[in-house]
């Protein structure tokens, strides 16, 4: 067991989906977990009860738009005044317009995608230093497979994830001598509301039946591992977290994905 008792961890967009799973995993270490949201789509009492059911300390929930630097500064200042050192920051929020036709590819849409999905990583690192007088020990950017595969309409998702991964690499080297470790994770298809909303319930059911959907809790544990101290030799990397599905040949998938090539 890893104990992060007495240390603070921040997960942006931590009230739902993968962010919530990451928050839960860090709560299991005893860390004080702070989660952010923008739209209040999750009832705070329901979220607290979800943690409490497994005897986890509920997270501190803060409204903070990931793309808003002054809101990020205010949040980090609030965290610093709580008195615990900042152990890890997980930049999890992403937002990008789906591209239905070439006209959707606009400079404004690109800027928005980067502003929500990549740049918050930089804001979080700078705001942490301003508030705590030190960088977080671990910084993790949540990327995806969008920059490796071509999904229908995912141009802006892919572009912003590519920017996020580049920023992780450069920050990793820049902050190395401060003892900071900066990495990205690139999960495959995570069983989540977002995936069902984006690709449809039928596709999601099919992916589930084939064992191709990742349990968010398993992805979340990779973040805790990266922030555990056991993986400090890993820095500036993007870790593909997909249980090996991106290694399976398209021919095997076409053949039905059975036997060694099939589920789990
Ligand atoms: N789902 C997948 O299959 C998958 C696969 C690979 C990678 N990922 C990556 O995993 C990350 C999370 O995805 P997800 O599917 O878990 O998302 P999600 O279910 O849509 O959850 C989004 C979370 O972010 C909050 N949020 C939304 N806009 C925000 C903003 N501007 N500022 C702060 N918080 C905001 C939401 O709360 P409110 O709505 O209440 O604001 C919620 O807590 C993303 O980076 C995504 O690219 C997902």
What's this entry about, in short?
It contains 10 helices and 7 strands. 42% of the residues lie in helices and 14% in strands.
What does this 3D model show about the protein?
With 264 residues, the chain is α/β, with parallel strands linked by helices. It has one domain: 3-Layer(aba) Sandwich (Rossmann fold). Helix content is 42%, strand content 14%. The chain has ten helices and seven strands. The protein has helices at residues 17-27, 44-53, 69-81, 107-117, 120-132, 155-174, 193-199, 201-209, 216-226, 250-254, and strands at 8-11, 32-37, 60-63, 86-91, 138-142, 181-187, 238-241. The protein has a seven-stranded parallel beta sheet, with helices on both faces. Strand 1 (8-11), helix 1 (17-27) and strand 2 (32-37) form a beta-alpha-beta unit. Helix 3 runs parallel beside helix 5 (120-132). The structure holds NADP nicotinamide-adenine-dinucleotide phosphate (NAP). NADP nicotinamide-adenine-dinucleotide phosphate (NAP) binds next to helix 1, strand 2 and helix 7.
């Amino acid at each position: 067991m890893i104990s992060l008792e007495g240390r603070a961890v921040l997960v942006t967009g931590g009230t739902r989906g993968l962010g919530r799973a990451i928050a839960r995993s860090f709560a299991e270490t005893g860390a004080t977990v702070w989660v952010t949201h923008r739209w209040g789509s999750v009832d705070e009492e329901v979220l607290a009860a979800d943690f409490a059911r497994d005897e986890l300390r509920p997270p501190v929930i803060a409204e903070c738009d990931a793309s808003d630097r002054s809101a990020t500064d205010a949040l980090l200042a609030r965290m610093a005044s709580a008195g615990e050192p900042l152990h890890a920051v997980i930049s999890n929020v992403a937002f990008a317009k789906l591209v239905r036709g070439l006209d959707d590819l606009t400079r404004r849409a690109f800027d928005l995608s980067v502003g929500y999905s990549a740049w918050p990583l930089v804001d979080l690192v700078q705001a942490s230093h301003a508030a705590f007088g030190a960088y977080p020990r671990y910084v993790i950017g949540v990327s995806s497979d969008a920059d490796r595969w071509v999904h229908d309409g995912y141009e802006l998702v892919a572009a912003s994830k590519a920017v996020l991964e580049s920023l992780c690499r450069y920050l990793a080297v820049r902050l190395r001598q401060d003892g900071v470790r900066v990495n990205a994770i690139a999960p495959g298809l995570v069983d989540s509301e977002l995936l069902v909303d984006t690709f449809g319930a039928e596709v999601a059911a099919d992916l589930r039946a084939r064992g191709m959907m990742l349990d968010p809790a398993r992805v979340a544990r990779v973040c805790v591992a990266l922030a555990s101290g056991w993986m400090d030799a890993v820095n500036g990397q993007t870790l593909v977290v997909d249980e090996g599905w991106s290694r399976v040949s398209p021919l095997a998938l076409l053949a039905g994905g059975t036997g060694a090539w099939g589920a789990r």
